[in-house]
Design a protein that fits this description.
The chain contains three helices and four strands. It has a four-stranded antiparallel sheet, with helices on one face. The chain is elongated, with a radius of gyration of 19 Å. The chain has helices at about 30-50, 95-100, 105-120, and strands at about 1-5, 10-15, 20, 65-70. The longest helix has 21 residues, at about 30-50. By secondary structure, it is of the alpha+beta class. A hairpin with a 2-residue loop joins strand 1 and strand 2 (about 10-15). The mean pLDDT is about 85. InterPro entries: TTHA1013/TTHA0281-like (IPR035069).
């Protein structure tokens, strides 16, 4: 989740330079959807270019003049362009393999999710 400012006709993410959108005064909900899209595209660009994703500012530290601050979530996978699969060979203990197969676990998804969580937790 990332914090955004909503003020007058602009919604901006304080932690990511250039991540903002203009809105109609009476359509804040549409503006927030647009902000989610801008954030998704901007974050995807940062990830794909190997740049660091900034640590979100705690919302209680934000001071919104002439507006308010709120949090938005973004499913970055919707914006990543390079989603081609790369074959990886990994070794897991036999018990984990047997249990995973019995439970019909998608090992690739588990690894992808774990890498994503590690990136988020290291910030």
């Amino acid at each position: 989740m990332l914090p955004i400012y909503v003020k007058q006709h602009i919604i901006e993410c304080v932690d990511i330079q250039g991540a903002y959108t203009e809105i109609q005064e009476n359509d804040i909900s549409q503006g927030i959807l647009m902000a989610e899209e801008v954030l998704g595209m901007t974050l995807a660009d940062l990830i794909e270019s190997g740049e660091d994703i900034p640590i979100p500012t705690p919302i209680e530290k934000l001071k919104a003049e002439n507006g308010f601050a709120t949090m938005v979530t973004v499913n970055i996978e919707e914006y990543i362009r390079d989603m081609k699969l790369v074959k990886k060979t990994v070794a897991v203990p036999k018990w984990a393999n047997d249990l995973g197969q019995r439970l019909d676990i998608n090992f690739s998804k588990v690894l992808t999710d774990a890498i994503s969580e590690m990136v988020i937790s290291k910030r």
